[in-house]
Amino acid sequence: MKSLAIAYPPPDMDRTRFSELIRDHHQPLLAYARVLTGHPGRARELVQDAFVAAWQAIARFDVTRDFGSWLRGIVRNKWREDCRKHRREVPFDDPELVRLEEAVRTWSASDGEAGLLDRLADCRSKLPETLSLAVHAYYDEDSDGDQAASSLGIPPATLRKRLERARTALRLCLESSN
Amino acid sequence: MNPELPNPPEDRLIDELLREQAHGHDEVFLQQVEQAIDARPAIPKKLPVRRNYTRIAIAACFGLAAGTLAFHHLQNLHTQADYLAYQESRKLTPDVDIEALKISVREQEDIVEEKRKVLTQIARTKDIVFGGDEEPRTLSLPTEVAALGDVTNSDLDFGSSDDFGRGWGDSDREGQGGGGFAPLPDRPADKQSNDRYGTFIDQPWKSPDREPLSTFSIDVDTASYANVRRMIREGRDIPRDAVRIEEFINAFNYNYDAPKGDGPFAVGADLAMCPWAPDHQLVRIFIKGREIEAKTRPASNLVFLIDVSGSMQSSDKLPLLKQSMQTLVGQLDERDSVAIVVYAGSEGVALPSTRLDEEGRATVIQTLSKLEAGGSTNGGAGINRAYQLAMEQKIEGGVNRVILATDGDFNVGITGQESLVELVKSRAKNGVYLTVVGFGSGNLNDSMMDAITRDGNGNYFYIGSEREGHKVFLQNLTGTLVTIAKDVKIQVDFNPAKVGSYRLIGYSNRVLKNEDFNNDAVDAGDIGAGHTVTAFYEIAPPVAEDNENKSKYQSEEKPANSQDWLTVRLRHKHPEGEQSGLIEFPLTGNPAPVDRTDTDFQFATAAALMGMKIRGMEEVADFGWEKVIALAKPGLANDITEDRAEFIELVNKLNGDKTSDTPRPRIVPPSPGKAEVITPAPER
Question: Average of pLDDT values for B488-508?
């Protein structure tokens, strides 16, 4: 419950406290922003801007609301603004946004966003060995598909299937943990 | 496209989380963020200040009206452009799977309602500035919201929504009083309401010759005023029996002298000329409960008993209930614990007793946020479960209380009012008290909720807005939770030499038999820390004796030769005691003109008059609303909470304020066939 607990900060939050919140939330938020934008650099800019905006408005933060969802709201609006400003096509429609938001909320329900990666690690530990190895080769080793498949000695199509199964299993695990 | 990359948003999120997990904390990024934040300081909080100066904010809005009109015109252009862009963006995505949204129609309606409130509030308060050097922006509104009006949130929405439009700060802006700038779509009075009110009869005039004693139980509830206030604001019909005059009077705080020493309360009485009958007098009896500082209040063991039946779905019920409970939780600390029992078709423990440390507080709030309405109501079973939990966790010497939050619709289980009252009374004897908090309209069982608290050692509030929720659970929290005396009864002994007749104003369903005053087995009302209680008697002078028509059987005994107008007696018990103590004092002196009394006297009189006039009491029919306002106005000198200013606003509305944007409320007499006793005024 760590994340949720700090999601209700004291009214006069000091700077140190806010830094702790940034540290706890920046990874899930970066992941979220990358899903929105599909672009790592733009995601970092959005998240940085969102933290700045959040700090500027921290005194107005409604403590009965979830801090993580507040931050995501800021990121979303900044991303929309960015799309409008630069006349970019919006790569995400509203139903997809709703699904995305619901996924974050569901997966974070018990431990909050800050605990999301820990829970993901826990779910990873429960994966069958073949799937776990595929995830490790592709993500942890930062390989592309061909390299990862080669290191595992399997065809790229098999790797893709295993990664797909692994993501489904992880999603189900995150959902069931609540 | 990379073939390893997933397509559904959930899988894409898993993909990105796995990448984050592989990379670990990005220290460089964190450093950049810290530097960017330090370059721009936070904005000081403004809302609480604005809350205390709602009137100023409203005045500022009027002052800015001309500029705002022009501003709105420009913003409209932006909004329309944004809306077109929004529609355009929707066109870009083919085959939208509506089912996949997994958002119920009800939730969407709630979102629209919340947006409407936010937008309305924004229209009122152009002084809100978010985001420092952020550019003013407009919100892209879905059609249903855009259709509500062309109000824009130019100042607000950089990241101001956390749920596709649910304003993260909207809770601070809802229900802050004021005149209600948003016009209602139709006259609410036209809607069928199933609210239920008990029928009661105003106290008749009595003669001290025949009935020198008048006895009643105190009532510190405020539900009736809060409920009628909501009706007035919304321009609804007001059933006369919705008015309990004493709850109008006691809905306000008065600056009575605090008790000296260790006594639980101070009590006093005074006298003035009656403003609506110059040859009559008004007697005020007042009580001030001992204040207890929040930090010294005893630990609390609270059980929230929350009605999640289908009737609780509307936005003025469960969502407001959650908000109010969260306000309460926000005021509690590590000393306290909270459990949550919900009831609908069946009851269940949503959260066992949880200590409110940082983690526990989050758990309680999370549990509250998950509650959804549906099903019928088994209130009786829920109450049993709630009391069981409260007894299991009972804190000796602490506050042990069940807080029942409902629209009062008990339609399954222990439905009989008497059964419920008995249950509540028996638990109160074990030291677990009840607070009933009523919500919403259309199904409000006011008579049930009043009865179970009146007869069962509890208190009853009605929450029609977030502001009222703050009043009950934030400003008056210790009073709401901490009982400092129980079974408080007042008995007045009138001197026939000075008083020809008298009547008690309000307290109609709190009157006790005179013999019950000294009977400690008979329950009466409780008083909480810091509470003030006020009661008025109207008294008329004795009429000249008519010796010619005097019956030979009439007593020749002369009234006591005393200058006392009356004697006040008060009985009360310690919250955990069973034996009452007695306080007794006389009232002497000459009545002052009402405009020479203290401002609290005048304001309390105005509050009583509002109730009397709505109840249709003939004696005050000719006492105009403008005179009620004149009586209330001096009280504005002591109006930190702005409750008194709001009162004047309501009276203006009753008086047919032409600037109001809601219809003038109509007062509905009792239905044909209902018992009504007309009690003529004594000769003047």
Answer: 94
Q: Is residue B58 part of a domain?
A: yes
Is the same domain home to B474 and B426?
yes
Residue B615 dihedral angles phi and psi, to the nearest 5°: -75, -5
Q: A59 and B33: CB-CB below 8 Å? A: no
B330: pLDDT strictly greater than 60: yes
Asked if residue B194 belongs to a domain, the reply is no
Whether B159 and chain A come into contact, CB under 8 Å, resolves to yes
Residue B416's SS3 state is: coil
pLDDT at B323 over 90: no
Taking only the tens place, the pLDDT of each residue in B345-370 is: 555 788 899 999 989 999 999 888 88
d(CA B237, CA B240): 9
Q: Is residue A151 less than 8 Å (CB to CB) from chain B?
A: no
| Residues of B whose CB is below 8 A from A64 | 171, 323, 326-327, 330, 365
- Residues in chain B closer than 8 A to A103 (CB atoms): 9-10, 13
User: Is B13 within 8 Å of A35 when comparing Cβ atoms?
Assistant: yes
CB-CB under 8 Å, A73 with B140: no
Owner of token pair 């509500």: B148
**Best CA proximity match to A8, nearest among A70, A74, A76, A51:** A70
> Where, residue-wise, is CATH 1.10.10.10 in chain A?
126-176
pTM of the model: 0.53
Contact B280, B539 (CB under 8 A): yes
At B378 the pLDDT is 53
What is the separation of C-alpha A154 from the centre of its chain, rounded to a whole number of angstroms?
A: 29
ipTM metric:
0.91
Q: What is the pLDDT of residue B309?
A: 73
Percent residues over pLDDT 90 in chain B: 30
Q: Which residue of B has its CA nearest to A164?
A: B6
- The whole-angstrom separation of Cα B442 and Cα A34 is 47
Do B422 and B467 belong to one domain? Answer: yes
CATH code (residue B632):
2.60.40.1230
Is A145 near chain B, with CB under 8 Å? yes
Over chain B, what is the mean pLDDT? 73
**Of A102-111, A129-138, B143-152, B427-436, which range is least confident?**
B143-152
List the one residue out of B506, B30, B183, B522 whose CA is nearest residue A21: B30
Name the token pair of B185: 């779509």
β-pair partners for B539: B281, B502
Provide the pLDDT confidence category of residue B151 given band limits of 50, 70 and 90.
Answer: very low
Contact B130/A at CB under 8 A: yes
Residue-wise pLDDT for B268-313, tens only, equals 999 999 999 999 999 999 999 988 887 788 899 999 988 887 677 7
Which CATH architecture describes the domain A126-176? Orthogonal Bundle (1.10)
Per-residue pLDDT at B541 exceeds 90: yes
Considering only A103-112, B161-170, B633-642, which range has the smallest mean pLDDT? B161-170
Contact B29 A56 (CB under 8 A): no
List CB contacts of A11: < 8 A, sequence separation 6 or more: A59, A63, B45
Q: Is residue B162 part of a domain?
A: yes
B366 touches chain A (CB under 8 A): yes
How far is residue A61's CA from residue A70's CA, in Å, rounded to a whole number? Answer: 8
Residue keyed to tokens 């259309």:
B442
Rounded CA separation B625/B613 (Å): 9
Between the two ends of chain A, the Cα-to-Cα distance in Å is 12
Supply B151's token pair.
């109000």
Number of domains in chain B: 4
Instruction: Kindly state the DSSP code that residue B347 receives in the 8-state scheme.
Output: E
Which residues on B lie below 8 Å from A92 (Cβ)? Answer: 9
| 8-state DSSP, B661 | S
What CATH architecture does domain A2-115 belong to?
Orthogonal Bundle (1.10)
Asked if B360 and A59 count as a contact pair (C-beta separation under 8 A), the reply is no
